[in-house]
Amino acid sequence: MRQRRTIKLLLVLLLTIIGVNTYAQDTISVSVKANVSKDKIQLRWATNSPSAWYYTNKHGVMIERYTLMRGEGILDTPEKVILTPSPLKPHPLDDWQHIAQKDNYAAIIAQALYGDDFEVSGGEKDISQIIALSQEQEQRYAMSLFAAEMSYEAALFAGWGFEDKTAIQGERYLYRVIPVSPDTKKTVEMGSAYVGLDDYRELPRPLELDAIWGNGSVMVTWNSRLLEQYYTAYHLEKSEDGKTYRRISNTPLTNMMDGDRIFYTDSITNGKTYYYRVLGLTSFGEEGPLSDTIQGKGTSKLIYNPSILKAIPDENGKVHVTWDFNEQGNSHLTSFELRRGNTDKGPFQPVVSGISPESRTAVYEKPMPENYLVIAAIPKEGDEVVSFPYMLIMEDTIPPAIPVGLEGIVDTAGVVHLKWIANTDADILGYRIFRGQTEGEELIPLTDVAVITNEYSDTIDIYNLNAKVYYAVTALDKRYNQSELSEIAVLEKPDMIKPSAPFISKFESRERGVRLEWIPGREERLQGFYIYRAEKLDKESVTIHDIRNPLATTFLDSTVVGGTDYLYTIVSVNKTGITSDLSPEIAIKSKEAASGNKIDKFSARRTNNGISLKWQHKITGIRSVSIYRKEGESPYMLWKEAESWEREITDTTARRNTPYEYMLVIKTRTGIPIKAETKIDK
């Protein structure tokens, strides 16, 4: 919170001292740039128009410094210091001779400052003279700005820069560069910079230095765009031993092409290793750290190019290739190599290697139907020279291989998704798709244009009477030779029509449970049946069994409780998951349990650990003891299987403030279940 308040107070101070600029974007003003070294703060400024440049050179500028912060605190009253007792102006012409002799950029600034009179006014001059003077002033203004960027020493001499050597660590300053304005009609807005010695940062290394090594030359390049906020120019250094470096030129290199990189071409001796590195130069005359070093050699290159004259197939299918190459280049070669590609862009693979430098013919033994041939001249040293591609089309009547692996699926929207294994034929063009509606009928092509990929989507009517659809594919090569049909893929349509409801034809209560018999529908794509049961008083049906057998017609419900009235219904389900209507409901009472086989007591009580369940009985021949639980309004769900000897169990998962119902079901070895229920409120 204290830091945010400090920033807010500092912004108020800055706006108060600088003043709020309410002028339009074309206001004539001074722009200030600051640089922090370890022991001083450097300033550079420039005007934004030739007329302002002329005006500030004539009358000068004053520099004020306000101390706004000391340590972590903001000063209540900024401390003002005037750093220039008198206005800063360019030195007189006579003073420029010494600096101009050693600094070409200083000479440019002197020439720009002390040429003809730049002031453009009416008077007795005609319009052409006024235009000429204006254009000359713009050129001198632009050239002087460039020269000042390249030489900080010259900028200081011209009164366009200042070094504050009285700055102290831990303090932050607002510098104001104020143009002197004796003429109130000609106002140039001041510029400012907010900075302190604590802002000092090491300069970065130049990045992405690279080189292209040629025949007697090398082109060195690096990325200047990434560091343009730091460096205005660079020095390129060269070494022949990797230890002693010299600069390519005393004049720094700049990016004059408005691209991302600087390029410099240097002359070298082939076969000799050279080393290059680069360092940046700021507009304040500082040199940054050295880049990484690159090294390499120039290599001689062939001056002769091979060219294929003809490629003629013989009766055996071989191709005789003839090319031209100047014999004066033979002594520079190790060999020729014939190469082949699928396109004129390559890649090109060798088909005949080790051809002697004196040879001008070669035999291509196993040509492909379509070929792009090149001949490569491989020199003893340096880079190889490769001819332009030569297209060779062979006579082709052989169809591609029959596609394999065709498979597919039909979704519920009627969209068919087909895929197969892609052919490996080198001259494959694509595939054609065929479809049929009934088994044994002739398949009809779906596509006139070859399908490029090994996948295809089709749309069919899933509501017609045909349960299946049939597909096949053929392959086409680039000569339009077509393979035989693939194996036919038989796809089943999703069944979107309800199956017929089954009819319960017989039911009876037995010792082991309730047995049902039914008559199913005769749908071809039937998958099975769901059996629903409800207690007569409950009327809430639950699924008690899922039969995954379309031929099933009977079911024994051995989970019934003796002496209970039940309602049963059955539905059919097809392979798409669509169910039929419910069968007519039947009611039946399960057979009573044997005398003496009953649960005497079943109770529930809340404790600190949950709900304690207790029961008593004298039932013998027990096969299983199951406890079902019903939470709130949800149906009964199997909760626990108990041992036959247990008489008590605690439900530790029961939640407080929630009503529960429990049903104890004991099955004897005869299969008759005996049940008891209890419940507990919140």
Q: What do you see in this structure?
A:
This protein is mostly beta strands. The chain folds into six domains: 2-199, no CATH class; 207-297, Immunoglobulin-like; 307-393, Immunoglobulin-like (Sandwich); 404-491, Immunoglobulin-like (Sandwich); 503-589, Sandwich (Immunoglobulin-like); 599-680, Sandwich (Immunoglobulin-like), CATH 2.60.40.10. 11% of the residues lie in helices and 44% in strands. The chain has six helices and 44 strands. The strands form twelve sheets. Strands 10, 11, 13, 14 and 15 form a five-stranded antiparallel sheet that branches. Strands 18, 19, 21, 22 and 23 form a five-stranded antiparallel sheet that branches. The longest helix is centred in the N-terminal third of the chain and has 24 residues, at 127-150. It is flat and about 130 Å long.
* Number of H- or I-type helical stretches: 6
Q: pLDDT average, as an integer?
A: 87
* Range of helix content: 10-25%
* Coarse morphology: flat
Main sheet properties: 5 strands, antiparallel
Number of strands: 44
How many distinct domains?
Answer: 6
Low-pLDDT stretches: 1-25, 117-131
Tell me the span between the first and last alpha carbons.
51 Å
Q: Which class best fits the helix and strand makeup?
A: mainly beta
Q: What is the CA-atom radius of gyration, in angstroms?
A: 48 Å
User: What is the beta-strand fraction?
Assistant: 35-45%
